[in-house]
Amino acid sequence: MEVDRVVSDSENVAVDENEKQVVEGAGDAVASHTEKLRRKHKKYVRTNSKEGPSPVATPLPKYRSWKNSRRPRNGHGRGLPKKGGAGGKGVWGAPGSELLEEYVEDANDPNYDSEAVTNGDVEFKQVIVEADPEEIVRKSEPVILEYFEHGDTNAAAEDFLEFVTSTRSHLICETIIEIALDHKLSHCEMASVLISDLYGRLFSAKDIGYAFERLLDKLPDLVLDTPDAAVLLSNFIARCVADDCLPPKFVQTRAGLDLNPPARQAIHRAETLLSMKQGLVRLDNIWGVGGGIRPVKSLIRQIQLLLKEYLTSGDLAEAMRCVRELEVPHFHHELVYETVLLAVETINSSVEEQLCTFLAELRRCVIVTPDQMDRGFLRVLEDMSDIVLDVPLAYIMLDRFVERCTARFRLADSVLARMPTRGRKRFVSEGDGGAIKDHALKLRE
């Protein structure tokens, strides 16, 4: 079967095509192949209106309004505009193409600004503004004091990097050591750890050496505020050498120089520490082990020695200082426990009064919090079943000591409620059936 088709588009193009005969009843594969051949051998014939009417009269296509469309006319494609709408003359171009065009300013333009930064005659360069040494020291002090509270070296390093450059990083090391000289040995240990963690990240070995040189020069002034500054500085130098933050030749070269007396003492002591047998291993604990890092047995032994020394000397201020140097506020309930236990075991009214004064002073100075105080008394009450085996009069002595303490400071209601009550008084023998007791009550009525 031969079919003549005329395809008309917006330009009234008539097309004649001879199609091959398709046998009815053929399979889907034959129909598909024939369809491909039909599309492949399409021929388009353009006609002119002056040549006469087209061979086959066709009505006006319904898509006559597409005459300005940019879609392809050959029947192929997906029906999208050619070149994404960017092809042809007088078109807007592809969406976003206006952003890729380089705009050249015209000097004759009325809106032309000769001082604009986009004219091409302005060159931008990176300028790093360095802070003054006084400002660096002022900003670093709160960071160091905050580090002594939380102990996070990463947080401290991030805070330092916000305002310190590589040329002024030695001021950070110098400030860390100066502040640590006025604090406890545990803070000196934290300062050594901070310097070790910041090495290679914030400052180099050269910066650390330069910081120690400045500290050695200022050591005569530091001794006025901290008498042990020379000893402490020598510990810092030896510890930095042990942590591989400072080369050993730093100490060796400074030993032969003409230094001030405190600096000479510090260098000589640092050289002695490094020359000891297994000195580098011992320098890891040069600041000692303080705070909650110590074992519990060691802390209990120090608390017991502290109480015995206080009972012997009677110096309350020295006892308060020793309690503060323990640096274990979370373990003060053990101090209260040992104090109450000592008062129960001694069976001495003068010792009880002295220990009661000790607890009252701890409470008044807020060295021991109320929670830690109550917790210490509750621990004694829980262990009374074991204490009474060694001290038969433990309940009587505890009752008397609690009365003394209650008169000096306030204990929690939970402590007073758990205090053992006194035994009842017998009116008559247990086998009287309560007759005499009932008779006495009637007489009272």
TrEMBL record:
Region feature (Disordered): 1-91
Keyword Nucleus (UniProt): yes
Coiled coil: none
Keyword annotations of the record: Cytoplasm, Nucleus, Repeat
Segments of skewed composition (Basic residues): 36-45, 64-81
Main location: cytoplasm
Subcellular location: Cytoplasm
Bias type Gly residues, positions: 82-91
Domain MI: 135-256, 298-421
N-terminal signal peptide: none
InterPro entries membership: ARM-type_fold, Initiation_fac_eIF4g_MI, PDCD4
Family: Belongs to the PDCD4 family.
Protein name as annotated: Programmed cell death protein 4
Species the sequence originates in: Vanessa tameamea
Lineage: Eukaryota, Metazoa, Ecdysozoa, Arthropoda, Hexapoda
